[in-house]
Backbone:
């Protein structure tokens, strides 16, 4: 009887070892054949993973001597305040330009530069009473102050224009001169969907 | 000759293992993401229509600030029932190849009625134009939120191709498995109980590969945080992926268990035969 059990175990273990060896071989061969594609697929899937619970601690945005920001603000977060004394505007500025961002305050077009970087900065906001409804009262020479976590920037209005929503060339992105462009929907007391934009152009004061 | 026969037995065993593995994976796909009623049941389970209803309302509100209209104009322009009906239309378009359009007239009429009531006066010609634009934008936003795309036809073509290929592959694999079993039987004809060992080894290989694959995916992919399109879609997708992984783990465990049992039975038969042989030898010597 002990021999029977012993022989059974011996035969079983032998076959299981064979199965383990073949499994290992299949894994090794599979890795050599498809390893790269599998890794690529995994990284692609992980790209659409947003870990909201283990969010990284926000790193303070600073500006270097080369006028380049270090640690850009996270998309959708507030990083500055815009103050336009002439029309009593004092609003938070968020990095991003989705409608969800615009519901909270002024949006910063993600394709444009940040204050202090020396290029075009594009801000936008609704034409509601709480925001830019009084844009028509602005005049050339009025001031716009942007206070960020890394510095304060003062701009002076030098132009105002009425453009169509698709006139992107009227909001040029350049890096020669620091220009702040703030726009809102026009007409200011519009009802329905506005296809025109009222843009205020301001340049940085040294 | 005996060694060659053994080598062939193991080669066929590995091919058998791979064929069974592919068959299992194909079955998992056709019973989950390629199965219309499975998708429908997942949407129900996750309260998808209610969640999409809330998402749609929130997306509409994004347009209110710039419209100069009161938020009340959005009241009751959509219903949960409409979202359920339209989502089912989209799923039918994808799975059954129908080409039914989403009707937004109901939304348009209700929204126009709410705007008229809110204004309390006749619209000017300019307002008429901008309000129409606003209404169209809301209707398009509705379609975007319920995931109405122009790609349904293309997805249906892909789906049909996938189903045809899978059906063919299933048939081919079943034939291959049958042929392999016949070959293994022929190779073990003198000791047919060895078929149990070969089948057992194949099942253990499959079981181990499936269980390891499940743990590898768990380790490498953060399923809980996958985010695609919107939260409601992401939740459904995450649950489908979790379901697939659970099926993989369950099938893997069953095959592993079954494989071990078959090998054990083989071991028992082999040792009994050995004992009988030894007894006979002992008796003849006596």
Residues:
């Amino acid at each position: 009887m002990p021999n029977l059990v012993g022989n059974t175990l011996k035969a079983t273990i032998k076959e299981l070892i064979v199965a383990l060896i073949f499994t290992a071989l299949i894994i090794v061969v599979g890795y050599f054949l498809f390893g790269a594609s599998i890794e690529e697929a995994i990284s692609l899937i992980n790209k659409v993973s947003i870990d909201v619970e283990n969010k990284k601690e926000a790193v303070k945005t600073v500006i270097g001597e080369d006028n380049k920001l270090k640690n850009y603000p996270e998309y959708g977060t507030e990083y500055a305040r815009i103050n336009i004394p002439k029309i009593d505007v004092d609003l938070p500025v968020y990095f991003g330009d989705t409608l969800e961002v615009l519901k909270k305050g002024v949006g910063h077009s993600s394709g444009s530069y940040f204050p202090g970087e020396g290029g075009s900065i594009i801000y936008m906001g609704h034409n509601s009473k709480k925001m830019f409804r009084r844009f028509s009262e602005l005049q050339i020479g009025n001031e716009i102050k942007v206070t960020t976590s890394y510095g304060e920037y003062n701009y002076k209005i030098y132009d105002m224009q009425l453009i169509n929503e698709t006139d992107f060339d009227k909001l040029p992105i350049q890096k020669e001169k620091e220009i702040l462009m703030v726009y809102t929907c026009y007409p200011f007391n519009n009802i329905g969907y506005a296809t025109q934009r009222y843009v205020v152009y301001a340049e940085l004061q040294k | 000759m005996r060694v060659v026969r053994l080598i062939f037995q193991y080669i066929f065993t590995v091919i058998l293992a791979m064929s069974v593995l592919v068959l299992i994976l194909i079955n998992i796909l056709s019973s989950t993401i390629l199965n219309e009623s499975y998708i429908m049941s997942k949407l129900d389970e996750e309260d998808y229509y209610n969640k999409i209803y809330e998402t749609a309302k929130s997306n509409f509100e994004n347009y209110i600030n710039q419209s100069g209209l009161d938020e009340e104009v959005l009241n009751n322009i959509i219903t949960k029932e409409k979202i359920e009906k339209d989502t089912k239309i989209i799923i039918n378009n994808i799975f059954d190849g129908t080409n039914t359009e989403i009707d937004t007239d109901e939304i348009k009429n209700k929204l126009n009625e709410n705007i008229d009531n809110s204004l309390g006066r006749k619209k000017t010609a300019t307002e008429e134009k901008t309000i129409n634009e606003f209404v169209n934008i809301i209707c398009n936003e509705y379609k975007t939120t319920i995931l109405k795309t122009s790609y349904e036809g293309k997805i249906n073509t892909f789906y049909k191709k996938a189903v045809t290929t899978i059906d063919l592959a299933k048939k081919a694999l079943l034939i291959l498995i049958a042929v392999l079993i016949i070959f293994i039987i022929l190779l073990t004809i003198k000791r047919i109980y060895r078929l149990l060992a070969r089948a057992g080894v194949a099942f253990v290989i499959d079981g181990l590969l499936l269980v390891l694959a499940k743990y590898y995916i768990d380790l490498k992919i953060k399923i809980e945080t996958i985010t695609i399109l919107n939260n409601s879609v992401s939740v459904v997708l995450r649950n489908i992926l979790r379901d697939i992984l659970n099926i993989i783990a369950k099938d893997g465990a069953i095959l592993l268990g079954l494989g071990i049992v078959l090998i054990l039975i083989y071991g028992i038969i082999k040792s009994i035969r050995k004992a009988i042989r030894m007894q006979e030898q002992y008796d003849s010597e006596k």
Observations:
- Chain A has two helices and ten strands.
- Chain A touches chain B at residues 3-12, 15-16, 18-20, 22-23, 26-27, 42, 45-46, 48-52, 99-100, 102-103, 126-128, 131, 185, 189-195 (CB under 8 Å).
- Helices of chain A lie at 2-47, 99-104.
- Residues 62-204 of chain A form a domain with the Sortase; Chain: A; fold (CATH 2.40.260.10).
